[in-house]
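Incident log, structure service

09:12 report received: a user says their structure output differs between two submissions of the same chain.
09:20 pulled the input from the user's history:
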Amino acid sequence: MAPTAFSHIGVCVSDLERSSRFYRDALGFEQVGSHHIGDEFASLMEVPGVDLDSVMLARDGVTVELLGFRSPGHVGEAERRPMNRLGLTHLSFLVDDVDAVASAVEGAGGVLIGGTRTTLDVAGVTLDFVYCTDPDGTRIELMHLPGATAASA
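09:34 re-ran on a clean worker, output below:
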């Protein structure tokens, strides 16, 4: 039996307000909910003594849950992961103007990874890509694919 629907993507963040603002201002998400999560979810999350706030953001049928841990806090460094590390590698967004959205990402506290800019001509159509990160290093791909829609990309 398969799942009935996709629910959301969870992202642990170091500063919930900063990251909420980033996903809203730079990437066009809207807040659709928020929750306080306590020790009743410790077993599910495998985090003893968990105390966190969750912000649900949605756009184009995709929901991102930002998790801000009060206790025991977050672990790991706020840096982007190598693309060949097992697990989630990046979030990807279709954009009309890579430069404009990259500028919005930087203005909202993200980082443009300039050396990743890739522009290709495929059968006379210019494709444009660049990677950037959110404030905690989660890799985000911006891609301009003329004529593409979410369903075709």
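09:41 both user submissions now match this output. Likely a transient worker issue. Closing.
09:42 reviewer note: The longest strand covers residues 111-122. Residues 91-144 form a domain with the 2,3-Dihydroxybiphenyl 1,2-Dioxygenase; domain 1 fold (CATH 3.10.180.10).
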